[in-house]
Description:
Elements: E1 16-18, H1 27-31, E2 40-42, E3 47-48, E4 62-64, E5 68-69, H2 73-78, E6 86-89, E7 108-111, H3 119-124, E8 132-135, E9 139-140, E10 154-156, E11 160-161, H4 165-169, E12 178-180, E13 195-198, E14 203-206
Amino acid sequence: TELKNLKLERLEKLTHLDLSSILNLTHDHFTVIYQGMLEEIKLPYNQNVSEFNFSGLKNIKKLNLSNYKGLTAEQFNSISKDKIESIDLAFNMNTIGFNFSGLNNLKKLIVKSHKKLTAEEFNSIPKDKLEKIRFVYDQDVTGFDFSNLNNIKTLDLPFCKKLTSEQFNAVPKDNLESLRLPYGQDITGFDLSEFQLRDGEIRWIRK
């Protein structure tokens, strides 16, 4: 599909916009889109967004960045974050300079990036409402603080490294329903008394 004579600037009540099938999407096309009411937006696979202006995303709830490239810290930090409930970080996204501190309503965090999150970045993310965390590629969790995951339901850590018993035992378990520990994880000292095995030695569920 190609964008020709589409009056996207007139769609002032638009809450969901799917442009994933569009060919040759440019920042000029994107600029005319009224972003103020958008709760979710999908762009073409492997879209370079380095020149896109996201500062108008004031109501965005689902921020899926997994298929895009070129997003800068300045662009990410310009996005209003107080209503974001879900973030999916891209494979090769460099998160240096990204400000995660305003994500007060974040419920789901999916990290696919090869670049890894630092402990400082992870610990700056508000976690009171987080229900799901998933790391898709190798992630060193040294220094990661899991103690304030008060509403966590799904903790998916199969590719994480250096998870300690102290970190795991600090995770609030009241709402935890599904747990995947790192492959080959030594569970000496891990308190798993409330869980039972499912699918070998990888997945645990509440009894």
